[in-house]
Design a protein that fits this description.
By secondary structure, the protein is α+β, with helices and mostly antiparallel strands. It is built from six helices and nine strands. The radius of gyration is 51 Å and the shape is rod-shaped. About 14% of the residues have low confidence.
Length: 284
Amino acid sequence: MEKDRLYEQIEAYLAGALPGEERRSFEQQLAADPELAAEVALHRQAAKALGDPEKLAFRQKIADLAQEFSGPQARKGPNFRRWLPFVITGLFIALWWWYDLSHLAPEKQETSSVIQPQAPDSLNAPETAAETGDTLITLPPETPVQEQPVRRDPKQAFAVNPELEHLLTQAPDAYLKVDTTLLETFPAAGGRNIRFNGRLQTSVDPLPGFELAVLNNSARVVSRLPVKAEEIPDADPKFAFAARKNYALEVDEVVKLQPGLYYLRLSVKGGTQSLWAGKFRADR
């Protein structure tokens, strides 16, 4: 009877049904008695397993089985109530396992009944064919697309480029000033002869190298021409610090060009800053 009373008290405690004073007394006893704490933990685990919403369908069956084990004949055993939670848990696991298998069996049967598509017997099947009411379509292989070469409109080759036109009116460089220029272009054997002469005033020392770039009206550089620079002797030399000197710039090269409008840009070799710009037409 004492064990029965203890189990009833444990169940009431777990259910929150113990009165306040009795609950406080039970919790003090629970803190001081490890065996009681283990018993409460065991009951809590069994109650949690039986209280799962997914398993409520089996609780009635388990309760019936527990009633058979806890009847008058079962009470003859002195320690049966102590092992009752283990018996109930084992029965619950067995029933749950049986329940899962009974629901998985139809799914396996349904999966095994799916008909997998069959591979074609021949690669020479027609492009369209009818079979059991369905239309099977075989697409022909894709033909690789070849890019067509870009052909430039001859009329566009003489169109003016606004950005390059801006170079023709820009202010001269303060340190490398180019003036008194002369540009000549005319047909020559193997292409077009480009002649450029100019005067450079600068106090930069040593003097850098220069180049004359030939650009088409799409702003693409088609040739880079070397520039010769020779100092012009001064009749009245000045020995002041950073005195300006004059240099003669010269270009005389033959370049192979297609008919079109071309621009010239004078700059320090390897640089992009324009010191002078011009343009010309190559009609043939």
